[in-house]
Design goal:
This protein has 212 residues and is mainly beta. The chain is built from three helices and 14 strands. A hairpin with a 4-residue loop joins strand 7 and strand 8. The protein is globular and about 40 Å long.
Amino acid sequence: ALVAASGVAQAGTVFSDAENDLFDNGFSNLDIKSVTVSHDANNVYMSVETRGYQNWTKYMIYMNVSSASDFTGSNAWNRPCNLTTQISHYVGSWVDQPNTNQQNWAWDGFNWNMDGGTTDNDQSQTGSNIVTFTISRSFLGLLGNGTILFDVGTSGGGGNDPAVDCLSRSTPSTTGWGDPSTSGNFLAYTIPAPGSIALAGLAGLAVGRRRR
């Protein structure tokens, strides 16, 4: 509770993916092992771990945010990716430059807009094949309680490259570079309001003191 009140990130939830589930398992940098999601009062954090690492990897995060009012089956990069859930927000990112490498997009019902601007991903753990993405809760419209339905895909540098791996699938998401990808069922991460957690925790501390 005190951690939540101070704005420090909560312990993460790990969403695991099957390994060696690509059309070509030689692309270890595209093979997602897990995604760890956490949050604090200001941001949501997604740490993507792959089986290997190459700096030409592209990352795509699809999000259906419960507070949004408009959704679409497309993505802001117009990649050939068939999604099983419509989305309201999209993060597209790359690692072949150290900063200004994460685009944060929101759907307004008609167009994709980079309302969240271009920010930096965290490449401090690429030696362990991990890249971490910070996504503003204000940008997502999730300053209180809410749920994010999401999926994460990895891809190459070509504008028509599909998601070679999807966190949501334990089987190949595409049969090859020239074929569209298809996601599985989106995963869910729920955010309670930090203030509510803090108040509940403080109430628990008070009860504990009375008992003692």
